[in-house]
Write a structure and sequence with these properties.
Elements (H helix, E strand, L loop, with lengths): L1 E5 L5 E3 L4 E3 L1 H9 L4 E5 L7 H15 L8 H11 L7 H26 L4 H20 L10 H11 L3 H30 L1
Length: 193
Amino acid sequence: MRVIRKYANRRLYDTQQSRYVTLEDLRRLIIEEEPFRVEDAKSGEDLTRTILLSIIIEQEQADSEAEVFSNDLLAQLIRVYDMTSPLPLSRYLEQGTQLMLEQQKRLQSQWKQAMRNTPLEFMRELTEENMRFWQKTLNQPGHNNEPSDGDQADEKSRETPSDTDKTNKTSVSKANANKADVSSTKKKQDKTS
């Protein structure tokens, strides 16, 4: 793992490349998925988290149209720290962000593939891939995939006719039988007259 040392003058030094780096350089390492650790040059204390937060702040200030953290969201995050039993927010955010990034990569890959295939084939493949993605997501631990009682009742009502349907069919059958009886009785009366 690449080690970045932070000096008292706030400069960052990349020990692997033997040169000073900026937050922008570290941001590029993150995008390239190059792992690194930032440590205090004197104490060796891990400062990675603080530097990552600094990179986020720099990005938020650089482009107001692309900001991720609204004022409301930041206020809510601050409130989470004040909870007596904090939620596992970190894990939730990590998983949600990971799913979003995987979906984005998948869509980019599919878009490149679409340029090689016909539009119809692309749409079919995209639909199949998205179905697999959501099935995988919903089958992860923590998701209740069992149908509820209401879902089971809905399913049964689709499979078998309801009592009302049976009653209606029986009534129609009886009405048809009555019409036939009336018709045959009328024919007999006409013949006898």
